[in-house]
Amino acid sequence: MIENIIFDFGDVFINLDKQATAREMEKFGFKYLTPELEELFAAYEKGLITTEYFLDQTSQMFPKAGKKDLMHAWNSIILDFPEERLKFIEKLAKEKDYRLFLLSNTNELHIDYVKQRMGNERFARFKKCFEKFYLSHEINLRKPERSIFEFVLNSNSLKAENTFFVDDSSEHTSAAAELSICCWHLKVGKEDILELKSKISKC
After folding, report:
1. Topology of domain 4-14+80-201, CATH
2. What residue spans in the chain does CATH classification 3.40.50.1000 cover?
3. DSSP 8-state assignment for residue 171
4. Angle ∠(189,191,197) on CA atoms, nearest 5
5. pTM (two decimals)
6. 34-84: per-residue pLDDT in tens?
7. How are beta strands 132-135 and 182-185 bridged, if at all?
8. Which of 202, 191, 182 lies closest to 5, judged by CA?
9. How far is CA 162 from the centre of its chain?
10. Contacts of residue 3, Cβ cutoff 8 Å, sequence gap at least 6
11. Three-class SS state of 15
């Protein structure tokens, strides 16, 4: 029986345009994701480097881009947070049928921009729906690492077999499934978090 739900954030609650950053960076000579860039992005998402260092390193790779250009490109991935999804999670939290957790791969720049786009009041409404609000850059762990799922389970005394995880990345849901967590790989554009209860009933 499912007692706990772990939610991803991007493209589960808040809409994303995952190609936007690459499109914006093409103006400054970006062609493809190099291993060096991947390593830099991963370190930033895990909170292992500061925003200042991240921007400094990126501007060295793309000297035509100023820091404001880089921040604009980096944040262009983030779109709107539909009100019906916010009301949905608020209702779920009020019902108290499940323990609710958020687990997001993110970074300081993105979260600051999310707060700016949502407004502090709406962001606070969202955050208070969850027992714990885990952001990768604050806990120094990142999906799909096994250790991040073990951390959430162990820190909150959750049993994997009683836990449900929803994420739009099949890589992330596959990693969680290896720990016997029941998973929903949400297909963006075809499914919505509003369908949650029908998905849980299949576990």
Report:
1. Rossmann fold (3.40.50)
2. 4-14+80-201
3. H
4. 160
5. 0.96
6. 999 999 999 999 999 999 999 999 999 999 999 999 999 999 999 999 999
7. unpaired
8. 182
9. 22
10. 98, 99, 158, 159, 162, 163
11. coil
